[in-house]
TrEMBL record:
It comes from Segatella cerevisiae. The chain crosses the membrane at residues 12-33, 45-66, 87-107, 113-130, 142-168, 206-224, 236-253. This is Probable membrane transporter protein. It is found in: Cell membrane; Membrane. Pfam families: TauE.
Length: 255
């Protein structure tokens, strides 16, 4: 081919592109099933994979769009069981702190911050399962958790385990917990996407990639909701703790 890529190179590029999107869709489906089952982990699974293909500066906005869609679908599936009062208390500090974190997105060392977060989550989960730590129930925990969740969400695109730990203190049924946490997360992702757009960190390419992965995550959410509807609360919460440790180790090693 004159004036362009040789046919063999064009075919290789096309094959690589198709393979990349197949991988992203499969990972999106897995991430959606995981986050739909335990309330978090989708972003922690997605981020290393998207970063591998695009780099972290693009991976975080792409993951934001995908997770926004995923969380909106989980909220819709469990709409009747959302605890709106607790969600509101959580979002009052979470939304402004999400915008603040998104403003500082380009300034922080994301690898270092992410690994520190993973270490914290592993220690927290081990202590929680061993009954060494008890988050107090009430507005103070929800408000404080909203502040921390929003800040980390805006900066790193990862906050699900923090918000999940907060909503687990409310002793909700699995579906109510998943739907309530997803409602709060969806609102934060919307604020984050708007803020990224204001700083020219969002474009059509990023949006379309996030849309594609988000559709795969929504399919995973549907699978997850079929699995958790009749699960007992206490064993479920222990599974959540184990998965928090496993996903944190995965992210620490791959970020």
């Amino acid at each position: 081919m004159e004036g362009g890529l040789p046919l063999s190179r064009w075919a290789a590029c096309f094959y690589s592109c198709i393979l990349m999107y197949i991988v992203l869709i499969i990972v999106g489906l897995i991430a959606g099933t995981l986050s739909g089952s335990i309330g978090f982990g989708g972003g922690m699974i997605l981020l290393p994979v998207i970063t591998y293909f695009y780099g972290v500066e693009i991976a975080v906005p792409v993951s934001t769009i995908a997770q926004m869609m995923s969380n909106l679908s989980r909220a819709a599936m469990g709409w009747k069981e959302i605890k709106w009062k607790q969600v509101l208390w959580f979002l009052i500090p979470a939304l402004p702190f999400t915008a603040l974190g998104a403003c500082g997105f380009s300034l922080v060392n994301k690898t270092l911050m992410t690994r520190l977060l993973c270490i914290f989550l592993i220690v927290f989960s081990i202590m929680k399962m061993g009954n060494k730590i008890h988050l107090p129930k009430g507005h103070k925990t929800v408000i404080g958790g909203g502040m921390l969740t929003g800040l980390l969400n805006g900066m790193l695109g990862i906050s699900g385990p923090i918000s999940s730990a907060v909503f687990l203190t409310l002793d909700l049924s699995p579906v109510s917990y998943i739907a309530s946490e997803a409602t709060a997360a969806a609102a934060m992702h919307i604020v984050k996407a708007i803020t990224y757009g204001k700083f020219n960190l969002m474009n059509e390419h990023i949006f379309l990639n996030g849309l594609l992965i988000g559709c795969a995550m929504m399919a995973g959410n549907w699978i997850a909701f079929r699995l958790i509807r009749n699960v007992n609360k206490k064993p479920y919460q222990r599974v959540v703790g184990i998965m928090m440790i496993a996903v944190s180790i995965w992210l620490f090693l791959t970020v």
